[in-house]
Write a structure and sequence with these properties.
- The chain is an all-alpha fold.
- The protein has 2 domains: 1-36; 42-162, Cytochrome c/b562 (Four Helix Bundle (Hemerythrin (Met), subunit A), Up-down Bundle).
- 71% of the residues lie in helices and 0% in strands.
- The chain contains 5 helices and no strands.
- The two termini are 12 Å apart.
Amino acid sequence: MNDAVMNEAVVNEEAFARARAAGRRLGRVLALSLGLGIAPLGSAEESLDLVAVMADMQRFAHKIQLSLDAENLRLADFYAHELEAAVARASSIDSYGDYPVGRLSASTLKPLMLQLGTAIDSGELPRANTAFDQLLSGCNSCHQLTEHDYIRLQRNAVNPYLQSFAPLR
């Protein structure tokens, strides 16, 4: 990847992070000032942080899947590291409502992320795909445990990103 493309990617990620932080601040102000009753689900900050982390996790997981579909293990590895960081952030959230989301994320997803990383590092695409499917199942089992089984993750081959996931030839 040339330096100009890499710099643009860094700038775009930084802009996204700033916009997400601004949105969190606005959400906290609105929730607190309008008294929308977010408190029973956990603190307003925990609720908004969980939503942001889950969005990151979903985005990175989808990019891993698109990378695997394109047989680009190098790119899948890159996004697996990004997903691993998001899982670590989810693991630091104490609770959401009565559910220990942080502990559930750590106990369910961290071992599955390790399996996915090992599978990607093996260079065996079928093994990486199996590990990815197991990760999605882990996400869904956590949603069931927290009575959010209406949130179901599944593979989706549609690429909504302005990005090619094909390996460089």
